[in-house]
Amino acid sequence: MDRQIELAMRSPDFWYPQDFAETGTGVAARILPVALCPGSMLYNALGQARRALTKPLRADVKVICIGNLTVGGTGKTPTAIAVARQLTDRHNTPFFLTRGFGGRAAGPLAVDPSRHTSRQVGDESLLLARHAPTIVSHNRLKGAELAVEQGADIIVMDDGFQNPTLVQDLSIIVVDAQRGFGNGRIIPAGPLRESITKGLARAHAIVLMQTDDDRSNWITPDPLQNFRRPLINAWYQTWQPATLESERVFAFAGIGRPQKFFQSAAKLGLHIVDTMAYPDHHAFTSSEFGIMVDRAETYGACLLTTEKDFVRLTKQQQDLVHVLKGETCFENSAQLDQLLADRAFSSEVDTGSR
Predict the structure, then answer these.
(1) What CA–CA distance (Å, rounded) separates 140 from 353?
(2) pLDDT-derived band of residue 1, with 50, 70 and 90 as boundaries?
(3) N or C: which end of the chain has fewer CB within 10 A?
(4) Average pLDDT, stretch 193-221?
């Protein structure tokens, strides 16, 4: 499926009516999903046909896929980084494999953060390359071959759950617990890349991203209540930059869910005076950045953004911006370890397609 279509879309309000339970989304939430059903049927049919007609090929090493069923904003990339960290702790040499969404390079190529820009390889690729060697390739099999040539003994795919070209030994779907699957409809009528039933049937495990580590707030979306494979609760833990402890902050973000970033920053006690949200993977222009600098100066505030947004800035712009860092934390890391042992390190070869 053409992921560039997804990149060009900003999640409309009617995709997630639960976000507007108090104010409501009006007529659009009721009429638009129905009106867009023909487009959803076509999108779904094309995806199913591709999976049915494509025979997955096996890489020379095991492949772990960290994917999702919805468009954007579930915490997929931080989860891929956390999984790679756990693999490194087991003395493996993981390589990331990604399509490089938002970048021009088709690959296969090894990402060099000192040389490549987000316009070339995409923002997620640059972020991943800070943690482990990263290969960008539109052709996943050729990307896997390059990773193995360069020393990978296991591959972590960031996204690609709907891509049927490569056998996935372990497929983990990341789900935002608060948002779940939105209105339960497929693009463009809703946020789903495929049907929930078919997607869950192929998944080996779910990472359920909770709002924070407060278990009293944890939610399990209804479609996952009867999921019989491993379900691992997790959250994205952020920490306050020491340099911003007593500063006023102007926060900006171009990610799947900018409001979630703003809420995390406020929860840390940062004094947020204003915010600006952009679409996911947004390429900031010089004029846009200049406007934010001017507004921050008006407030006497510092600029703050996410790690993913930071790598899309120029070196000169980065000098003017603070970063809110964080990482995915698992409720039960031993559960993930067991999953890796069962699926990624088992000597048994799964010859069936996904």
Answers:
(1) 15
(2) very low
(3) N
(4) 92
DSSP secondary structure of 23-74? T--HHHHHHHHHHTHHHHHHHHHHHHHHHHH---B--SSEEEEEE-SBSS-S
pLDDT one-digit tens code per residue, 272-301:
999 999 988 899 999 999 999 999 999 999
Residue 250: phi and psi, rounded to 5, are -110, 115
DSSP 340: I
Question: Which range (7-16, 59-68, 272-281) has the least confidence?
Answer: 7-16
Which tokens is 60 given?
């020379």
> Looking at the domain 62-236+329-344, which fold is it?
Rossmann fold (3.40.50)
| Separation of alpha carbons 262 and 41, rounded Å | 35
d(CA 309, CA 292): 14
Helix (H) / strand (E) containing 322: strand 321-330
Nearest to 293 by CA among 281, 305, 283: 305
- Count CA atoms within 13 Å of residue 206 on its CB side: 23
In Å, the largest CA–CA distance within the chain is 62
Positions of CATH 3.40.50.2300 in the chain = 238-327
162 vs 2: which has the higher pLDDT: 162
In 10 A of CB 39, how many CB atoms? 13
Amino acid at 280: D
